Amino acid sequence: MNDLLSLFLKHTFELNLNWLLFAHFFLVTYFIGVIIAVRRPVGVAFAWIFIVMTFPVLGIGLYVLIGERPVGRKLTRKITRMNREYEKITENMRQQYAKDRLGMPLEDRALSLLAEAKNGSPVIAGNKLELHTNSLEILQCFIDEINAAKKSLHLEFYIWALGGDADRVGEALIAAAKRGVSCKVLLDSLGSSAWFKSKWPARFRNAGIQVTEALPIQVGRFQFRRADLRLHRKIFVVDGSIVWTGSMNMVDPRTFKQDSGVGEWVDAMVRVEGPVAAQFELTFSFDWSVDNPKITHFNDRNPPVAPFEGAAIAQELASGPVYRDDILYQVLLSAIIDAREELTITTPYFGPDDGLLQALMASARRGVKVTLIVPKLNDSTLVAWSSKSYYADLLRSGVRIAEFRGGLLHTKSLLVDSRIAVFGSVNFDQRSLRLNFEISLIAYDKDFCAKLNQLVQSYLNESDFIDMTTWAKRPRWHHYLENAAHLTSPLL
Question: The whole model's pTM is what?
Answer without folding.
Answer: 0.87
